[in-house]
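WARN retry 2 of 3 for item q-0093 after timeout on previous attempt; input resubmitted unchanged.
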Amino acid sequence: MFTQGGKILEQTVERGKTLLAAGPAAVLLVSGKAEVLGFQVKDNRRVVIRDGKHLPFFVTEKAVFDISLGENASIKEVDGNTVPASWADAVKVLMGFPKKPVVAMVMGKADSGKTSFCTYLVNNLVNTKQKTAILDGDLGQSDVGPPCTVAYACVTKPLIELYELKAENAFFVGVTSPNEAVDKMIEGLALMKSEIISRTVDFVIINTDGWVEGENAAQYKVQLAKKLEPDIIFCIQQKNELAPLIEATAFKKIVVESSSAVKQRSPEKRRLLREMSYAKYLAGAKVKSLPLSQLKLEEKAALQSKQDAERGLLLGLYSAQRKFLGLGILHEFDHKRKTLKVLTSVSATPSIVAFGKVKLNESFKEAHLNESNTAAPQAKV
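OK item q-0093 returned
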């Protein structure tokens, strides 16, 4: 059965089947039992699914759902569980390590199901009272922190999406793809991993980006693994696309299958998800004037002598102790007054400003490099 778009309906699903829901949609479990990636959905729990995302509701006891479908949303009922048996085996492998903390790295190409797999691991570990942290290293499709950052959170209870988490700290890389900043990516992930370990956790799950194919990608992932020193690497593949990478890395590796629920997203859809995330982290933003004399600027090569040439650049804002405060957008660089005017929702005054290479327009949409600088956000001081 397949239903699409703009409807409100009631759906009964038999035990042992999976309801696949693609957003934008809202799913309410009226009766019965179901789970999403290891999360037990409770009666009358309304699950909101974002545009561009989809979730599998595996029914463990005959269930009735009330479903609201937005434009281009869909539901599909399939037999069995879309979570592969190898995912449950992966949890057993993690639990079998005698020493803590256990660091697990997850690799796979874009849209292979890495985030779903990480969510499943986290939920099953938290369900057994394990102190678990997730480190999100997917710059372009970050769930734990804003786009263009690597971020981590400690998980205290099961969840449906990693997007629900609030980052405890982040490292601003300033680009949406690791091939533009390999050294900075490795530095940021290593720094965040070290910070997590200092917090005394049992498990660290590291989700990585989808850049895995080609010699440069393989070299990057090998360097990253050497720096992060995982106890195990889970490799998600659909065919044999990770074979060169698996051969090149020296750490213990286990290959797991992609979920049958995985859907490919277009570059446009991936960009749309990023832009929704920019809007989330810049909600209620106001322009702040920051004296250069009180700031440390990083990657400031982005600043140009031409007035307003750099408007719209994405910024990472930090405290003096290098705690990530949030995102900003460069509104104006006043050369005469030696101040930065920054559009941000951060209330604290930053001490460190890191410059990115992404530009956003007034609607928080990614602007092409050849767009006019007047596309920068317009806001009153």
